[in-house]
Amino acid sequence: MTNLSQKATTLLELHKPGNPVVLPTVWDAWSANLAVSAGFTALTVGSHPVSDSIGKPDNEGITFDELLARITQISGAVDAPLSVDIESGYGEDPKRLIDGLISAGAVGLNIEDTVHSEGGRLREAQEHADFVGALRAASDATDVHVVINARTDLFVKEIGDENDRVDRAIARLKLAAAAGADSLYPVGFHNDADYKRLAEELPLPINAIANPAEGDLSHFASLGVGRISFGPIFQMVLAKRAEEVLARWK
């Protein structure tokens, strides 16, 4: 537990607005080793690529236990802090989520506000904050400060009027911050002005999604981003390269 507590502290300290930590999104022991061998010291585990890797759909097409089995394999293969995308929580109790992640060797989580088990509805802002708060309370009951990355899908689901979407995302994420989140994830690809506004007006480091084959670290840093992950895009980039290699042998 002490080692996990230290890893959690390390992960949290890596979040620096203007000097963002890059957390490659991995899905198994092989991809995790690939990222660590390339010099990265902390990782995210993405629900979409994990689901793809076992032939099941994203959006909670796998169970929490199936995810934990994969996390255990990854944590056994690499000695790096792991943050795990737990989608909207798989219908599990917050204590079960925290205890399961810690038992599998993870020290961080990504929690989104889309409830896949209820037709993909978006949690109300306070409802999502309350869930974040319950996760924080469950973490506080352990020796590990699990790093909570609170995500909103307002942008990717294009909910409501585009003209005030940034305003609503800021209000929603501020509630999550007050409830105990450690970083905030307005997932989606934004223009520079919106990134700067999100970074300036939100009280915690923000997470940006990037295309590893095209994005630029220094540019994200200039926007005030504190954390970068790749979602399923790293896996997609490798898949495209594999198609090119294999095509020579048809």
TrEMBL record:
InterPro entries named in the record: ICL/PEPM (IPR039556), Pyrv/PenolPyrv_kinase-like_dom (IPR015813), Pyrv_kinase-like_dom_sf (IPR040442)
Molecular-function GO terms, alphabetical: lyase activity
Statement: the UniProt record of this protein carries the keyword Lyase: yes
One Pfam family cited in the UniProt record for this chain: PEP_mutase
UniProt xrefs under SUPFAM superfamilies: Phosphoenolpyruvate/pyruvate domain
Keyword Lyase set for record: yes
Superkingdom of origin organism: Bacteria
Keyword annotations: Lyase
PANTHER family hit by this protein: CARBOXYPHOSPHONOENOLPYRUVATE PHOSPHONOMUTASE-LIKE PROTEIN (AFU_ORTHOLOGUE AFUA_5G07230), PHOSPHOENOLPYRUVATE CARBOXYLASE
Name the UniProt record assigns to this protein: Isocitrate lyase/phosphoenolpyruvate mutase family protein
